[in-house]
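USER:
Before I trust my own judgement here, I would like a peer's view. Write it directly below this note and I will take it from there.

ASSISTANT:
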Amino acid sequence: MRIIRASGPAIDAGLLEEAWNNPESFVFVPAHMSMDDAPLFRHRGYLPKELSKDHFALLTSGSTGKPKVVIGCRARSEDLTRVLHEIQDSAPVAETICALPLTYSYAFVNQWLWAKVQGRRFRPSPGLSSPAQFRQDLIAADNAMLCLVGSQVSLMESQLADCSFPGVIRLHFAGGRFPQHKLESLNRMFPEAVIFNNFGCAEALPRLTVRKAGASNDAQNVGSPLPGVELKSVEGALFFRSPFGAVATVGADGFHLFDASEWIPTGDIGHPAADGESWQLAGRTNEVFNRYGEKISLFTIGGTVEDFWPGQSAVFKTVDTHGEEAGAIALAPKPSKQQMRALLSEFRKKHNRAQWPLYIVGMDKLPELANGKPDLVSIASIGDEHVLWRQHI
């Protein structure tokens, strides 16, 4: 299996074009990744011969720090882009502006591969790593699609809120909580854009559901499954079957080939919505736990923070001095004492004591993964010097 190391969207697009047109399977990995840490290369002897052609592989670690490789079939992923083209009403879209790394399956499929299959322009952008250039790219947008993650919206408000970008007509969010509370701001910045909430996981490569922003006022509503996709909830855990998803994964426990009838865990807690068609999320499986007999959802806690805090925020799991799991909060930029008191007042109004954060840290800017999501592993290791408030129980 050929190895392609990412350099940046402009170069990567050309490398991917050549690799996709070559029958040999390839793996596309971030530039900084160590081959020694990649499970695919420790276990590649287990890969069946039929995966040596017409397949591709992407590395994912999310915010867990545990690498996993997902292997997809090129024909299935091309079919997914055709379904997305219809569901997202993308016929008027002439180009896609890519401000995310192409090693992220969301950008890889929804932007680069979609553009290839549909014959649209693919325009790379440095995104929020270079706000001035990103601003110019958005000003020059011509019936464009833009894909972002929800955690980037606060930075966009601080860097780009004084601008309007009517050339963006489709705006997609994935990879975390949908910024429902930011729709007014987004509609100002992108007055002509239809905004979508997209949900999926690495094993889905990457999409399972979609909804237009206006179809629900609930950020936890992720919409209805794509045609051909099935979802089910087993004791709260969400599973899927999809004709477009990964055919295999390789992780620390070795190689796993999916059977067509197999229900695959998304890693989320979810259930059908009251309308019987859409689905509701309660958060990642490892983000829902019991604290002193009380069920805690970091996803719900994060909603309280995001509704209140105008800057960056992240909620992550930690443990107290008694070994009990708890949630903690990181904020950027560093809040004032008055802002801290106001946030704690929100928690007193909306949550019982067990659901309060164990502590709150503040910093100038949250560390991020390459795909724009908060780097929860790094945030959780931040020293006591950044702690602004701590529970004493």
